[in-house]
């Protein structure tokens, strides 16, 4: 994975290609970039500046319809039962990626009955969305890991309602992006998550082709998706 330090620095504001454009405040964003970001860059090395973001997907749907982005409505029905949310985080110089968190609807899906360990973290929410309790639990786990490494890090996140402030963190300084700025200022949204999703699509297609070659029905379980997510993140 290449670093994203140049992405924020190179952002210009006139071009907006997402639904947040109507509420976009270029002056506030410029102030955040010139003041808040510069302060972070002065106090932390790039290896200790992390960005965190979620992406959602309907994990069983083939590539032409497989993507669902944060903020899009998830209509009830069969597809909503197949949704997973993936929390990704990486540092500014591209040298470190944190093990992903996957959020599903069910605590123990049947496909995980005989699975003793997972390659990533798994949590549950009734809608398979990020929630404040999951966010806090995750940040406290990361904070403990960074504390063991004797590191102080800055963690840049958007102001999603589930992204609450977490008291008592010893090694993480939580820094929030300005409102409605994700589409232009979120580093992971500047190509990293796109590459992750492309890798997932490729793995899904490879699995489908393999099933066709074996003359078997193509099926993707939550457990399959978790291993695809792990592999995809390792490929970025």
From TrEMBL:
Residues 81-236 form the DDE-1 domain. One of its GO terms (molecular function) is DNA binding. InterPro entries: CenT-Element_Derived, DDE_SF_endonuclease_dom. It comes from the Eukaryota. It holds the Pfam family DDE_1. GO terms for cellular component: nucleus. Transmembrane segments: none annotated. This is Tigger transposable element-derived protein 4.
């Amino acid at each position: 994975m290449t670093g994203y330090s140049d992405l924020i620095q190179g952002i210009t504001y006139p071009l907006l290609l997402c639904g947040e454009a109507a509420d976009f405040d270029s002056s506030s964003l410029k102030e955040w970039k010139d003041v808040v970001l510069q302060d972070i860059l002065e106090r932390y090395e790039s290896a200790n500046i992390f960005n965190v973001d979620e992406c959602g997907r309907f994990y069983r749907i083939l590539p032409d319809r497989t993507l669902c982005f944060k903020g899009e409505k998830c209509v009830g029905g069969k597809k909503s039962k197949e949704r997973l949310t993936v929390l990704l985080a990486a540092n500014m110089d591209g040298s470190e990626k944190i093990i992903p968190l996957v959020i599903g609807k069910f605590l123990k899906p049947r496909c995980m009955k005989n699975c003793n360990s997972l390659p990533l973290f798994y949590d549950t929410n009734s809608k398979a969305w990020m929630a404040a309790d999951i966010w806090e639990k995750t940040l406290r786990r990361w904070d403990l890991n960074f504390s063991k490494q004797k590191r102080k890090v800055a963690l840049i996140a958007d102001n999603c309602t589930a992204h609450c402030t977490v008291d008592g963190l010893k090694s993480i300084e939580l820094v929030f992006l300005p409102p409605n700025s994700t589409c232009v200022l979120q580093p992971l949204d500047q190509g990293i998550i796109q590459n992750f999703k492309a890798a997932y699509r490729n793995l899904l297609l490879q699995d489908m082709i393999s099933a066709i070659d074996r003359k078997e029905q193509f099926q993707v379980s939550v457990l399959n998706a978790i291993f695809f997510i792990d592999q995809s993140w390792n490929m970025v």
